[in-house]
């Protein structure tokens, strides 16, 4: 077992060593790739088309990329460095930033070569993602003997931070007056109370009818169709059981009663009053099934 | 009861974010300050009223404040909806002859202690707990979020934006707080742009649509109008006091009946206050309307008949009624509405920092979205 200092020292020994030697571009600089790039980015600069087209300078790295068929010229030293980090638990990787310098434009037909050096390896750093080391490489891209540009690229190789376990959602509050509703939900049925005296459906569940005072009731399974009557987008405070922002909607059922729920099928910022929805049921954890409302229109 | 009793003393602690002392201590300090203001002694008190939510029992306040026997003690339920009803209880007791001097109080460390804004995530399976159980599993957990549901429907119904509808209420409160040295936001007015750029809490509510959270205490002394006339300050006559609960009333989560654009509980109070006093909204010189969240100030203005439905935002923007002249709970402090009653009294006495010239009739209301209450306070004679 190595200490952090030991590891850092071993990692830093890679500084200055090559990461790729005499790599070559898989394709010459070419108009189809330039066109695809410009279309993807919406870049309509006239310099990138026509008979005297140059490649967008920011494509610099694109000409060095291995694609699905793999890298060329990658050095043993770079694989060794990454392997050492993997072995130290820094198994995840994220690209953090890059800097480029442009020495001469690349033109269709140019065939590039490149050399990459491991420029620096940082001390152990702790970020929100986890703890690890930043590795910075510098790639010099050439056409023949001429330097076309330099691409400095930084990654973080890190051990992912343990995610705090998400607590369960607040539980329904079940008692003798409303147990039938939550039992129905568990069986994937949306049950409404109905007064046997005046036939008024009601929600929330209560032991008597507000319309007529009748104490006798039965249940009717809701059609499950409804519309969004109102909604709230929750931002603050951030409850750990939920991921703010999230929408909570008040659904008016076809039967005329309203109940609260979450809407699925649209992002939180697209929930609107009047959206038609249909009930589904979702198991949030072993103990909790809740109705949820899918947008249908 | 109506017109036979008066508020003769008001007293408060400082309004802070961390009082550094117990809620009981705050209650006792506020009660003593109110008695001093009334020119009365603890020994004169024979009745105490507070909220069911208050943690300081009447008997303990009496004991710590140097009071003797009590012949009347009562508590009112439903959070901030209780505020004006504590005065109603006091007035009823005095008018009925079961007590002579009744002190109403509310004190808490609502910012440094249990913050209502931090929300609820678990409730016992009582009837009240079960009511919250219909909303908690879906993540609607805070007072702001419960109010936001109605606020969204209100905006939708009247084709308003949160900025234009709610902003004027916040700006008005902070304008008044800015000139009130007792207000937490003394010297810190806001603009409509500040409101519009404040962060979302529960859309369509922003930070500046939500009242503060406060540590402090406020007390109100009620006695007979006859006795009030012998005390140092001009009496603030309790011309009318009323409670109200609408059909199908719920506590904050009243989503299941009605059209969510009004406050049926306020309508019940308004009917009683206007009927009892023979007054109407046009007769009111100053409105102290409970402002836990800006949208419910608009709905109250409409329920009390100050303007037509959907028009309250314009009514506020045009300053057509002196409103929450202490700065409200948005600007002065969140004392569960009790500080608003004190401001109503100051207006009748003529001692408000934002005094309305010649104010003789004040409407004061309590928390809405819950069973609520209201007062009409008038000058004597």
From TrEMBL, chain A:
Domain FAS1-like dehydratase: 24-141
Source superkingdom: Bacteria
Location of the ChsH2 rubredoxin-like zinc ribbon domain: 182-217
Sequence ranges assigned to domain ChsH2 C-terminal OB-fold in this UniProt record: 220-282
InterPro entries in alphabetical order: ChsH2_C, ChsH2_Znr, FAS1-like_DH_region, HotDog_dom_sf, NA-bd_OB-fold, Thioester_dehydratase-like
UniProt-listed Gene3D superfamilies: Hotdog Thioesterase (3.10.129.10)
Alphabetized PANTHER family for the sequence: BLR3430 PROTEIN
Name of the protein in its database record: OB-fold domain-containing protein
Lineage, highest ranks first: Bacteria, Bacillati, Actinomycetota, Actinomycetes, Kitasatosporales
UniProtKB/TrEMBL annotation, chain B:
SUPFAM superfamilies membership: Thiolase-like
Domain of life: Bacteria
One annotated GO molecular function: acyltransferase activity, transferring groups other than amino-acyl groups
Pfam short name (any one): Thiolase_C_1
InterPro entries: Thiolase, Thiolase-like, Thiolase_C_2
Annotated Thiolase C-terminal domain residues: 255-372
Protein name: Lipid-transfer protein
Record organism: Streptomyces cupreus
């Amino acid at each position: 077992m190595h200490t952090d200092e030991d590891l850092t020292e071993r990692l830093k020994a890679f500084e200055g060593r090559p990461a790729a030697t005499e790599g070559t571009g898989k394709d010459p600089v070419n108009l189809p790739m330039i066109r695809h790039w410009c279309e993807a980015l919406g870049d309509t600069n006239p310099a990138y088309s026509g008979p005297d087209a140059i490649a967008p300078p920011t494509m610099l790295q694109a000409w060095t990329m291995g694609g699905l068929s793999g890298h060329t010229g990658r050095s043993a030293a770079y694989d060794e460095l990454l392997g050492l980090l993997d072995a130290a638990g820094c198994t995840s990787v994220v690209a953090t930033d890059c800097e480029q310098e442009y020495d001469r434009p690349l033109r269709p037909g140019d065939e590039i070569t490149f050399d990459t050096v491991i420029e620096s390896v940082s001390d152990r750093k702790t970020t929100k993602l986890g703890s690890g080391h930043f590795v910075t490489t510098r790639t010099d891209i050439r056409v023949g003997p001429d330097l076309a540009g330099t691409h400095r690229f930084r990654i973080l190789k890190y051990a992912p931070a343990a995610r705090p376990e998400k607590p369960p959602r607040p539980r329904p509050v079940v008692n003798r007056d409303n147990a039938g509703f939550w039992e129905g939900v568990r069986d994937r049925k949306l049950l409404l109370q109905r007064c046997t005296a005046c036939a008024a459906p009601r929600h929330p569940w209560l032991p008597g009818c507000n319309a007529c005072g009748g104490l006798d009731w039965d249940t009717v399974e809701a059609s499950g169709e409804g519309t969004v009557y109102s909604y709230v987008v929750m931002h603050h405070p951030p409850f750990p059981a939920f991921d703010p922002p999230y929408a909570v909607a008040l659904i008016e059922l076809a039967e005329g009663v309203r109940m609260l729920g979450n809407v699925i099928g649209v992002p939180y910022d697209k929930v609107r009053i009047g959206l038609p929805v249909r009930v589904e049921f979702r198991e949030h954890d072993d103990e909790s099934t809740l109705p949820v409302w899918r947008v249908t229109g | 009861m109506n017109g036979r009793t008066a508020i003769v003393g008001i007293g408060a602690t400082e309004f802070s974010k961390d009082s550094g002392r117990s809620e009981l201590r705050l209650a006792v300090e506020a009660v003593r300050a109110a008695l001093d203001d009334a020119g009365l002694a603890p020994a004169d008190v024979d009745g105490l009223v507070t909220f069911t939510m208050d943690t300081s029992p009447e008997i303990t306040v009496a004991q710590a404040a140097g009071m003797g026997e009590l012949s009347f003690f009562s508590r009112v339920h439903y959070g901030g909806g209780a505020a004006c009803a504590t005065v109603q209880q006091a007035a009823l007791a005095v008018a009925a002859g079961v007590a002579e001097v009744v002190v109403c109080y509310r004190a808490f460390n609502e910012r440094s202690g249990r913050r209502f804004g931090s929300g609820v995530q678990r409730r016992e399976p009582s009837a009240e707990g079960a009511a919250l159980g219909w909303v908690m599993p879906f993540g609607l957990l805070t007072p702001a979020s419960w109010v936001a549901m109605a606020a969204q429907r209100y905006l939708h119904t009247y084709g308003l934006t949160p900025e234009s509808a709610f902003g004027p209420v916040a700006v008005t409160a902070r304008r008044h707080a800015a000139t009130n040295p007792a207000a937490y936001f003394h010297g810190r007015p806001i603009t409509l742009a500040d409101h519009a750029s404040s962060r979302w809490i529960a859309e369509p509510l922003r930070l500046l649509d939500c009242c503060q959270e406060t540590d402090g205490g406020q007390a109100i002394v009620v006695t007979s109008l006859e006795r009030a006339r012998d005390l140092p300050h001009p009496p603030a006559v309790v011309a009318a006091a009323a409670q109200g609960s609408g059909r199908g009333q719920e506590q904050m989560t009243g989503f299941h009946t009605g059209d969510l654009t009004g406050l049926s509980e306020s309508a019940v109070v308004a009917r009683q206050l206007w009927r009892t006093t023979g007054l109407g909204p046009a007769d009111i010189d100053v409105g102290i309307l409970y402002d836990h969240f800006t949208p419910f100030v608009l709905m109250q203005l409409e329920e009390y008949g100050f303007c037509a439905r959907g028009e309250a935002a314009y009514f506020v923007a045009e300053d057509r009624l002196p409103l929450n002249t202490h700065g409200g709970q948005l600007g002065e402090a969140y004392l569960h509405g009790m500080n608003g009653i004190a401001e109503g009294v100051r207006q009748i006495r003529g001692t408000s920092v934002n005094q309305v010239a010649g104010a003789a009739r004040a409407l004061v209301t309590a928390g809405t979205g819950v069973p609520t209450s209201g007062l009409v306070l008038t000058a004597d004679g």
